[in-house]
Each structure stands twice: as C-alpha cells, then as structure tokens.
Amino acid sequence: MLTEVHVPDDVSAAVRLLAGGATAIGGGTCVLPWLNDYASPPTELVSLRRAGLSGIRLHGDTVEIGAATTLAQVEHDDRLEDLNAVVRSIASTPVRNLATVGGNLFARQPHGDLAVALVALDARVTLVDETGSRELPVEELTNGAGLVTTVTFELPRPGTFRYVKAARRRYNSASLVTVAATVTEEEGTVTGARIALGGVGPRVIRAHAVEAALVGQELTADTVRAAGEAGRGEIEPADDAYASAWYRTRVFPVHLRRALLGH
Amino acid sequence: MPVRIVNLKVNGVDQAFMAKPETTLLLALREQLGLTGAKRGCAQGACGSCTVLLDGAPVVSCLVPAATVDGSAVATVEGLADGQELSDVQQAFIDGFATQCGFCTPGMIMSAEALLARNPDPTADEVNEAISGNVCRCTGYAPIVSAILDAARRRRDRAGQEATR
Amino acid sequence: MARIDSEYFRDERSSDFTVIGTAVQRSDVLGHVTGRTEFMEDRTFPNLAHLKIHRSAHHHALITDVDYSEALKVPGVLRVITYKDVPENWYGVLRLIGIGPDDEPVLAEDRVLYKGEPIVAVVADSEAAALEGASKVKVTYTELPAVLDVEEAMLPETPVIKRAGTNYFVYEGHHARRIRFGDVEAGFAEADHIFEYRYSSAPIEHAPTETTGCIVVPQPGGRLLIHSNTQAAFFTLDNTALTLKRPFTDLQVKGGTVGGGFGGKVDVMVEPLACIAATMTNRPVKFVYTREEEMQVSSPRAAERIYIKDGVMNDGRIVARKIMLYVDAGAYARHSPYGATKAAAHLPGPYTIPNVYADCHCVYTNRTPSSAMRGFGVTIADFAIESQMDQVARALHIDPLEFRLRNAYRDGDVKAHRKVASGTALIEVIQSTAALVGHELPEEYRAMSSSTPRGAGA
C-alpha cells in the first residue's frame, strides 16, 4: 500500500529518503502498474522528476545522460542517432514520455531494451548513496546498488553500432530477442565486438561467446552462424505471453544475423 | 495517511485538489475534478485509454502519481472543443466514422492531437506509431488512422487559409 | 459505400431501402469525441466503498479452512463476505430460460473448480484497503487432480469434478446435443473417399477496453440501483434478484454505453456481490475487475476441438459427414450449453449431405469457465467446416469453390435438422465472390442457382 510520495528537489534529499527504505521511481512505468492493482507492503515512493537529474550533455564524444531523462527526450535528440531507434522500439509514446533512462536499467526482462544497448555501448553509471558516489559499468548494475544519477558512454564510431529488436508487433511490444552490438572492423576483419542480448534471459546478457567467435573473423553468413551457435550456450530464455523459450532459442541466430549482416 | 494539495492548470484553468499517495493523475482528473473523458482501461499503462497531455506531451495518466506533477499543465479531451466548435481531430473522427464503443476515443484523440502538434503532415505509418499505445478493442483502427490523416489535412488547410488572409 | 446487390431477392422484397446502403451517423458520436459519453465508472458517489476478491490459487482443490481475521484488521476494511452471506449461492445464468442445474456458486463453498474462482469478497473504504484486505485472507486447500482436457474429461476413468455427477452437460438425458440424419455408416461404405481431420481452437478473451464492473447504490426506500456495464440489463436484473432472493422490483439496473463487450459482459459476475455489499454496509459499492481479472477470470470464448469425417464421391459429392465436437465449458456451464446447441444447429454447414451424424459435447474441465462471445458455437464450427471443405477439395484436386458449389444447399433441400431450406443464396454469394476476385468458374458452375432444384438443369 502506498503510504507517501516524495518529490525531492535535489539528489541529496532523494538519497536520504532512499536510505530510509523508500523506493525510487523515474516515470513510474514499472512500479505503478503493480501498486495500482495489487496489494503491497507499505511503500514510500521517491519521484526523481524534480531532483535535477534530467538532461543530455555531450563533452566531445562523451555522452552524459541524467537518470531522470525520459526516453522521449532521447528519442528526439538528434545527437544520439543510434539511440533514437533503440528508444522508438520501446513501449509507446505516452509511456516514453514518462519512462526514464535510469528506470529502464531496472526494467525486468523482456523489457529494458535501452539497457541492452547501453551494455553494448559499454556505458557506465554513477551511483550515489549516503557514503558517496561511485561508478559502475551498466553491465554490473544490480538492484539496490544505489541511486543512479547519470549514465555515461562514448559515442560509437559511425556504422559500428547495430541494433535489432524482434517483437510480436512492429510497435509497442516486448522483446522476443533484442540484439545490440558495437562491432569494429579493420580491412574486413572484426577487431572488436561487444554484444548484448535482451529477451533471452532473466537479465541483459553479455554475449561473450558470440564476441569471441567473431573477433579475428570476417563477418560472413558462415561466421555469424557459428557465432550464433556459440551464443546458444549463454542464453537462458523463458516462456512468457510473447513467445516460448523454444521459439526464442530457435530465432536468436536469425536476429543475430540481421543485426550483424543487416539481412 | 498524508494528503497533499496539488495544483494543476487543467485545460487552461487553475485547479487545486487533495491527493492521497495512491491518487494518480487519472483518478484526480476523474474523481476530484469531474473530468471523466480519460478512462481507466488497465491501470497498467498498456491501453492508452487514460492518455492526456502533461505539459504538452501525451502520457498514460494512470501511472502518474498526482503529487509528482504539482504545478504542471494538463490538457484533456474536454478542453479541445471551443464551445460547440470541435477540434479538427474531433470533427474528423465524427466524419470518418472513427468511433465504435467510444471508450478508447478520448485517449486516441489526445494521442492524435499530440502527433499533429509535433508533425503536421504525418504518414499513415507515423500515425500507426503514434497510436500504438492506444488500444481499440472494437478494432476500428483503419477509420481511426484515416480520420487522423484527414484531421492533419484540415489543419494544414486551415493554416494555409489563415496565412493567406 | 459498397453497392447493395438486391438483384437476387428482387421478387421477395422491395429494395426501396432508405437507410440500408447509406451512411448514417451514430447517435452517440458527439459524446464519444468530446469525452462526455457516460460509461459505468464515470459516475461518482460520495461515501463509495470498494469490493475486491480473494481468488482460488488452484485449478481444483478442497477448501479445508478460510481465515479472514487478518483481513478484518486492515484499516479501512468494512466487511468480509463469504458464501454464507449469499442468500441463494448456487446459480446458472440460463436458469431464466429453464436450463439447469444451477451449477455455480457465487462464492466457493467447500471446493474450487478453477484457478481464480472467487472465495471471499472484501469491502473497504478504499480500493487500496480492499486489495490489501483480500490479500490477507488465508485459505487452506487440499489439492485435487485437475482435469484440463475435454476428451480426457469424457473418459470413464477420469474423476468426476461436477456435483451433478458428469463431466458434461446433459441434454434431455443425452451426453451431447446430437444430430442423427440418414445412415452415416452406410454413407461412408458407399463413398469413394474418406477424409478425417482434427481441428482445435484456443480460448479467446474478449479483452474489452473497459473492464467488467458495476456500482450499486442503496436507495432511500430500500431498493438497489445497479449502475452496470452489462450487455444484458434485464438478464442481470433477474439473475441478481434470484441470487439475492429478493423481488425483481427491488432492483433497478441502469445500463448505458458499454466500453466493449463482444459477449463478455453477459455473465452476471459482479452485480450480486456488489448488491450484497451495498446492503450490508448501506453504502454505494463499486466492484470493477482489474485488467488482470478481466484477462484471467472473465469467461473467454470456449476452446473447441472438432473432428470431421467425410465420405466423398469421385465427382465431389459429400455423401456422409460425421462430427464429434467438444466445447470446453471450463468449470461451470454459464452460456456454454447454449453454445454447443448453436454449434449443432449450424452443422453440417450450408451443404446438403444425405447422411449426417454429430455429437456436440459441452464438457466441464478445471479451466476458466467459458461463455458467450460473438457467434459462439458457430464461429469455431465454421472454421472447422470450411477448413475441411478446403482440405477435401485439395485432396481431390477440385477447385475449392467448385467443391462448395457442388454441395451447396438449395431451396427445397431437407437439412440435417429436418427443416426445408428456403431463402438460400450460398450459390449466388460464391458466384459473386468469384467474379469479384477474378476467380473464373466454368459455365456449368456459373449456371447454378439456389432456386433450381438439385439434379434439374445443370
């Protein structure tokens, strides 16, 4: 049962409230559906709407996004072309106007596609708690780690970021398989690959085996197929209302291919 | 149970009401301000029946704790018509037979208004994307999309006429 | 607007239509686009109380204990309602037209037959307190094996889940709604080919955008005013009065615009409990399904399983058709006995077949009770029949439209239900459809007519 909604004006007030056991919300799109229709233990919410955590800043190629920046702000920011498409694949306009970048990092799979992209981009978060602040790769972020205030990453070099989300419908549907990758090539050979997967596990999966299978290879139908085979061992898909685990396993290599080869 | 006074500018009018912690923007509009155009279809942010404009942007009002938007401007379907004069989107919905049971209509219209404010000349696909968060279970999507495209034409024609006047 | 083709029936009725074929505006459209149309939940009442349900966690179980003491301690909780508070706990919506037995409890007594079955209702000052209260009810169960498959439910060794003694609805002493016409086995014996296929469908949820609900307001004189989004106001009034054991005149149902129904709002699920709660508290009481309840426990269209066996001659005439049809009613009858009857009425499709045998079973399982939805009984039967027509035509290398035309019923034919067909127009509809899509039919088929008796002319 909701017992209080706090709307602090700054981060330190938010941190204090969270230390007292309150729950942080960005846009509320993950937490409110539960609170609206289900019984819950006494809950105090801390809305980050006015905590000064909204905004997108570029320092050279370094992007810094405030945790309370909405997905819609990212969607309409011309400087973040690679992420525009990622965000448009998430939910619908009236949800994206509420949902935040920080909140998406904690969305339960098969949601949280932006987090998948941010893992592929090797993004880091700044976490604040009563003891101070620290940085952590998005990949290592867990529930309860602290209040995320910013997300930081380097803009990928043009053409190196790939993203495919397969869903039941073209718009506004949760992930069946999401593939995000940054792949660098020199003279046709893959020199670096950072690949993250959504929809195929209880959390965002960093596809180390896929990466290892690709580095040093040319991107061809054969090498990508082999990488997909390698990746089958590191995905842990589940049955849900959108698709069966069997289906996700079956189509994972197809969407990996589409992400990496474009067809 | 702590109760707050929340101030909103709703359809251009300053309003104040008491909000309990569980009072969402949707419930405040419906139960405190008597504006029942926005509907509760799911309370999960999934059906879009509760769509209103919050500081100009369409949001699912069922997921917004009222206390968090104190001081904001809200536009609802009730504020679109100027007296008996309907908005272009409303009139296009009538002329294009774009309603069936009517439950999704207010949310659908607010999503359309938001789209046209940002993009005066959308393609059919852009309309599909803009209303992808609004469920019409009577499945009257084709006339809805046509009506929104028609409303866009009306607005452009009107803007053209006003420019040449 | 598409042109209305009145040519075929020109001798039967005049075509001076003034409305059909024209665009007529809805009377309610202005309210829809301005947000002023009044739906059930758009009415607000001072001192409103809210009702939420504690539901079964199991498909099939005996209830050994219900402890609602913690629910009563939740601040804001006003009352807890159990089956003992329901004046006539057992009901069946079709009792109004003499169909029984009353097989469903308003609130579960000693057992639950499906996951999500209502056990206890909690009435509270706020929705949040009602949810909290309902979550605090503790039910102790002894789980029983669940029957989840229609054919398994019909087997003699399967445990009987229904107190009436059979896992199927009994139609005038029979295990199914039956059709017996001609001699189907003789038909199969004379046929050149036998084709048998199996068809099945999943349950389909109506998912109306407005969830099922009502608000009951006690009136000064003791009557109850029920604001409901039911699709069937009088059905709701009469059934609710029977459950309350009160005269029909004690209740007033105020319906109105329904935010999507599709057959999903005819089951009288919320009004009786809201009336009891309103009477107990003497306050207006709202009982509206959450979205999850709408998806999980409101009746869907029944899942069906249909076997069709056809005996067909080389020239494409169907001489025998045997159909075994199973409607999965779920745990309780609701409208499903009627649905299975409708399926039987629709068989063997709009075709003239001299030997027909059909058993349409209305089967009980431990699934969510199914009920009415847009043409229920007919819709899935049609899917099966027309899929069968396509499969048989292809197997015989006959054009599927020609195959249908060969077997199409005509005026004067005696149907399997021993009714003489009249006003048939299937042949003309197929001919027109073929022309519209550019599917060329041979002259012999273009010359066919519903009014020409079979065997005459072409």
Automatic annotation (TrEMBL), chain A:
Pfam families: CO_deh_flav_C, FAD_binding_5
Domain spans labelled FAD-binding PCMH-type: 1-158
Keyword check for Ribonucleoprotein: no
Keywords per UniProt: FAD, Flavoprotein, Oxidoreductase
Protein's UniProt keywords contain Zinc: no
Gene3D superfamilies registered for this protein in UniProt: 3.30.465.10, CO dehydrogenase flavoprotein, C-terminal domain
Highest taxon listed in the record's lineage: Bacteria
PROSITE patterns, per database record: FAD_PCMH
GO function terms (MF aspect): FAD binding; oxidoreductase activity
Bilayer-crossing regions: none
Protein name per the record: CO or xanthine dehydrogenase, FAD-binding subunit
Native source species: Asanoa hainanensis
UniProtKB/TrEMBL annotation, chain B:
GO molecular function per UniProt: 2 iron, 2 sulfur cluster binding; metal ion binding; oxidoreductase activity
Family matches, as Pfam families: Fer2, Fer2_2
Boundaries of every 2Fe-2S ferredoxin-type domain copy: 4-80
InterPro entries: 2Fe-2S-bd, 2Fe-2S-bd_dom_sf, 2Fe-2S_ferredoxin-like_sf, 2Fe-2S_ferredoxin-type, 2Fe2S_fd_BS, Beta-grasp_dom_sf, Diverse_Oxidoreductases
Leader sequence residues: none
Key words of the record: 2Fe-2S, Iron, Iron-sulfur, Metal-binding, Oxidoreductase
Domain of life: Bacteria
Protein name, UniProt field: Carbon-monoxide dehydrogenase small subunit
Organism this protein belongs to: Asanoa hainanensis
Automatic annotation (TrEMBL), chain C:
Domain (Aldehyde oxidase/xanthine dehydrogenase a/b hammerhead) ranges: 34-145
Keywords, comma-separated and alphabetical: Molybdenum, Oxidoreductase
SMART domains: Ald_Xan_dh_C
Tree of life domain: Bacteria
GO terms for MF: iron ion binding; oxidoreductase activity
A Pfam family this chain is assigned to: Ald_Xan_dh_C
Gene3D superfamilies listed in its UniProt record: Aldehyde oxidase/xanthine dehydrogenase, a/b hammerhead, Aldehyde oxidase/xanthine dehydrogenase, molybdopterin binding domain
Keyword Glycoprotein attributed: no
Name of the featured protein: Aldehyde oxidase and xanthine dehydrogenase, a/b hammerhead domain
